[in-house]
Amino acid sequence: MSIKPPALFILVIIFFYSCQKAEKVEGKMEGTWDRVVFDHNGSEQWSFTADNKIYIMLTLPNRLTFTGQEIVGDTVCVGNFTTDIVHYTHGALLNKNIFRVPAITVTDLTNFKYSGGNLDYTPYNTVWQVHKLNATVMILTTDVYSGKKGGLEQREFYKQ
Question: How far apart, in whole angstroms, are the C-alpha atoms of residue 3 and residue 80?
């Protein structure tokens, strides 16, 4: 069986459009994203810059730290990020699906105002897989949180 030239051309185009580039992912991520928050009446924003810095801004009104200290104003975590396209395999031996998934690796994230306790966001220093990223929505997940492999941790954002 031979593949006709028009069919081969279409397959090549589909292949090239299906391969995402890390730079393209970074370009889509740039800017400020508001996290959808369900467990408190505050807010959480992640900002990605062109020089690969990440800023996480938190506002948690009427909340206390684990030590009983009142949370005053906002707190900002600062770190770095890199993007990559990773292979993700799902399925049994003969029924495997292989996906090329964008991934964001957050490193050196530090909260200078509240280190330790319930406002220490250093567990965000991990690899986050990008499940959806367009002009208005970003959905990230990780299965390594606080340095431990476990259940799925998810973050959903809307672009400001």
Answer: 46
Closest to 79 (Cα-Cα) out of 104, 105, 54: 54
Task: Quickly state the pLDDT bin for 18 (edges 50, 70, 90).
Answer: very low
Locate 6 and state its tokens. Answer: 């028009």
Q: Which domains does the chain have, with CATH numbers?
A: 5-159 (2.40.128)
Q: Which tokens is 63 given?
A: 């909340």
Dihedral angle, C-alpha 66, 155, 34, 112, nearest 10 °: 40
Alpha-carbon distances, residue 69 vs 62, 65, 72, 89, 117 (angstroms):
11, 5, 9, 45, 10
pTM over 0.90: no
In order of 79, 91, 156, the CA distances from 42 in angstroms are 21, 39, 15
Overall size of the chain counted in residues = 160
